[in-house]
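Hey,
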Amino acid sequence: MTRQILHAHFALPPAAGPELYEQLLAIATDITPNVQPLSPDAALLDVGGATRYWDRDARGICDILRIRTLAMTDVLTTCAVAPNPMLARMAGAVTPPGTTMLLAEHEVTAWLRPRPVAFLHGVGPATATTLTKHGLHTIGNLADAPLPALTRLLGTATGRSLHARAQGHDPRPVQPQPAPKSLSREHHFTADCLDPHQHRRALLDLAHQLGARLRDDQTAAGGLTLICRYADHTATTRSRTLTEPTHHTAPLVTTAYDLYRLLGLQRARVRTLGLRAEAIRSAHQTAHQLAFGPDDERQRAIEAVSDRARARFGPGAIKPAALARPHPARRPTPKHVLHDPAPAAVSGTRPAVPVAGRPPATVPAGRSMSDPPRTVHG
């Protein structure tokens, strides 16, 4: 089913305050509850369900919105309807003030391809300069360009995103309460760290923090970025788009480890590791691919128990065993274990393992050097 997204631009007077904008959003919410504010003077409305409720097509919904905003607030509204939010915004940018524009799905390709590449939503001045320098002057040129070439030119995440947008694709939903675009956590080592095991423990902790925050906010991340800062103040960044938006810890940890392996560190002196969740969206509007087997459901059940424990006892109530115990390299050695604890293999006496500065000792038959010393009174 084709979505119908309405981009509404309100011609606010120069001296208008935030109260007028809130009033206009309330008028839009009376038409459909799926309204995403685009401060300070616009909004996105998902009118797919409103057409059935009001028994009108998309143009009729636009007429209702324009008449109400003009009658109740004396504000002129420009409306543009398209199959997704990106196209609705782009159509709204070229719609004459106070009018309505409808962009049908079968018209998207012919309408989009001839336009300059800088017109594509998400292409800034620097990116537009890079694309035109390599002969990609129109959105059609960008859509026809090989994806591997774009990823080498712009990076993996940006190349894939712009290639999809150039073909008119934008799966993002209309979010009544817009989620933050990104969420990040960092781990600062007390000293420059060369130990890969410590790096992985830090990434495990960061992924658990991000997953917990995403679940608390009822949001999901569509991508993950690893930032590694070194002792010489340089940094390396690696990004990856997730196969499906998620707020579960297991895929975040797996992706973080994969990004760490891509760094190919060899005794690098790491000072800070950071993880950033990107392309955040509402968790209620994402799909989850069902898995065969009990592991997936078991992990979800453990997460639910962990979240309830955190809500009641605090953030450190439950954590992975790898974070709860000290690293093996840092575990103190018991003071009484000075020699090889293996028992004597033959009867009689056997020489003990020599200790520096001490003469070798002998162990009576039937006893081991690991046995506690006996106390003799008298």
